[in-house]
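Module 6 notes. Inverse folding takes a fixed backbone as the condition and produces residue identities as the prediction. Think of it as a translation problem where the source language is geometry and the target language is the twenty amino acids. Below is one complete input and output pair. Work through it position by position during the lab.
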């Protein structure tokens, strides 16, 4: 599906500036940033809507929106410069995710303007690597508007109990089963598990398609980092290699790299070590690809970014904010009937927050794919989990 969507832009000569794909169970939300005239982009949207598994296409450029981007940036850190680097980290509300003798890896979230400012201020120390997600965005809800998401949230709106809600939900269930679901069941890229029953308020499960690292068959999720030329059609060529060989891309993040004119693609692909090594060999044959690394067996820092909109009223808002503070999530938008949270972390953290917020009603979720950089310190954080005391 990624290859088909990228092909629509490639055939019309559009260069995708950034792209973020987060897979949530049987659906994936694509956030794509392109430049062009309004009339031509409207034609592209009409072409995208004709694709079989595309459910909805929206242009949020003219609407109030919450936009966020995630960046991992690795800079040189000499002993005499570390105090100044820490000072800049505090100013931009960033976090240190890895530190070694000669470098520091920093995690930053914010709008694209903030990303540019961070790069400019850290450039004097020597930027070694940059991994950026594409921009993700959710529409801001208007204050004072009626709540369009009340049907998602029995916990947030207990006063609706005893009203003819069941009939409304049943009608929505029938429309969904006969309409929306029929449009994407049997998709050729993202598989859909058969379900015996139907749940109206389905939680978006981030563990969908994630393979167990200890699987005896040798299958596991591999994280690939690629440096490619920033030109129209390159993403279509890269994803075409995956689709022709039947690989399912679990997540994809495309953003500018540390070198002007080059972009970094971070993708998560399931497969065995042998099959992925053959895939890497095929990728190296592409003219527009400069470098590809399989980071799976190397200690690396990984991060994802999620925007999640929850249906809440005044009584439930305090409980949601308490849960958010435990996960160190930020409230980035609030209205009379919704609250939007921003969260960064690994996959398990995303899943845990979604499950806790399910009773309140999840309205919308926008996620980036995983971005990753090699840990210069050589510390594998996965081996540090589960210890009660510092190692």
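Target side of the pair, the amino acids:
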């Amino acid at each position: 599906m990624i290859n088909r969507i990228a092909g629509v832009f490639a055939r019309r000569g559009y260069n995708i500036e950034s792209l973020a794909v987060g897979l949530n169970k049987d659906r994936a939300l694509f956030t794509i940033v392109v430049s062009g005239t309004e009339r031509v982009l409207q034609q592209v949207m009409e072409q995208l809507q004709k694709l079989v598994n595309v459910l909805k296409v929206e242009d949020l450029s003219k609407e109030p929106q919450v936009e966020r981007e995630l960046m991992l940036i690795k800079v040189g850190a000499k002993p005499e410069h570390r105090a100044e680097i820490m000072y800049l980290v505090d100013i931009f509300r960033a976090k240190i995710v890895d530190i070694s003798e000669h470098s520091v890896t920093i995690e930053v979230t914010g709008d694209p303007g903030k990303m540019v400012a961070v790069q400019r201020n850290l450039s004097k120390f020597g930027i070694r690597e940059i991994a950026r997600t594409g921009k993700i965005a959710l529409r801001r809800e208007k204050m004072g508007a009626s709540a369009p998401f009340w049907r998602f949230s029995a916990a947030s709106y207990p006063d609706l109990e005893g009203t003819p809600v069941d009939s409304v939900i049943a009608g929505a269930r029938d429309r969904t089963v006969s309409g929306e679901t029929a449009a994407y069941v049997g998709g050729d890229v993202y598989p859909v598990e058969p379900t015996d029953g139907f749940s109206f308020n389905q939680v978006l499960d981030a563990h969908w398609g994630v393979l167990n690292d200890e699987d005896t068959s040798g299958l596991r999720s591999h994280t690939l980092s690629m440096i490619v030329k920033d030109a129209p059609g390159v993403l279509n060529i890269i994803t075409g290699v995956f689709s022709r060989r039947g690989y399912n891309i679990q997540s994809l993040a495309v953003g500018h790299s540390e070198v002007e004119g080059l972009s970094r693609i971070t993708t998560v692909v399931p497969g065995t070590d042998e099959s992925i090594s053959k895939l890497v060999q095929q990728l190296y044959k592409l003219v527009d690809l400069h470098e590809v690394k399989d980071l799976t067996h190397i200690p690396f820092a990984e991060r994802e970014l999620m925007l999640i909109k929850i249906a809440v009223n005044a009584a439930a808002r305090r409980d949601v904010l308490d849960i958010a503070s435990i996960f160190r999530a930020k409230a980035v938008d609030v209205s009379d009937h919704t609250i939007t949270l921003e969260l960064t972390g690994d996959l398990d953290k995303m899943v845990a927050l979604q499950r806790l917020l399910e009773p309140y009603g999840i309205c919308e979720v926008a996620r980036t794919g995983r971005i990753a950089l090699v840990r210069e310190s050589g510390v594998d954080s996965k081996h540090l989990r589960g210890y009660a005391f510092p190692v």
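Reference fact for the lab report: The mean pLDDT is 78.
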